Amino acid sequence: MQSGALKVKAAQFMQIYRSREVGQSYLTSVVTTLIALVHAMRLMLRIRPTSSLFFQILCNGPGTCVPLCLIAFFFKV
Predict the structure, then answer these.
(1) Using CA atoms, how far apart are residues 53 and 15, in angstroms rounded to an integer?
(2) How many whole angstroms separate alpha carbon 22 and alpha carbon 45?
(3) How many angstroms separate the CA atoms of 39 and 45, rounded?
(4) Is the dihedral angle over the CA atoms 44, 46, 52, 58 positive or is it negative?
(5) For residue range 12-29, what is the model confidence (pLDDT) as tens digits?
(6) Which 3 state secondary structure label does DSSP give 26?
(7) pTM (predicted TM-score)
(8) SS3 for 40?
(9) Could you list the residue ranges that cross the membrane (predicted)?
(10) Cα separation of 30 and 65, whole Å?
(11) Under DSSP, is residue 29 helix (H, G, I), strand (E, B) or coil?
């Protein structure tokens, strides 16, 4: 093992709602974005990340990234 390497004891993966599906109209995406924001808020309130906790958000596109990043910014994560 290299010196300074991080040991991870446990990882938790969660699936979230997308803001907008491919091909979805912009009008209906407003509703699904609000749903995704509420879902992301519920996850953040359940997890309650702190500065001492190693917390990382991995996103694979704007459909999942926008709600999580907005909520993470709100919580200053």
Answers:
(1) 20
(2) 29
(3) 10
(4) negative
(5) 777 777 788 788 888 988
(6) helix
(7) 0.64
(8) helix
(9) 23-41, 53-75
(10) 15
(11) helix
**Type of residue numbered 59:** C
Token pair for 5 = 């390497």
State the amino acid at position 75 in one-letter form.
F
Percent helix, percent strand, percent coil in the chain, to nearest 5? 45, 0, 55
Distance of CA 36 to the CA centre of its chain: 10
Q: Find out whether 72 and 58 touch, Cβ atoms under 8 Å.
A: no
Q: Which residue has the tokens 């446990």?
A: 10
Residue type, 27: L
Task: Return the amino acid letter for 46.
Answer: R
- Are 55 and 45 a contacting pair, CB within 8 Å? no
Q: Cβ(39)–Cβ(67) under 8 Å? A: yes
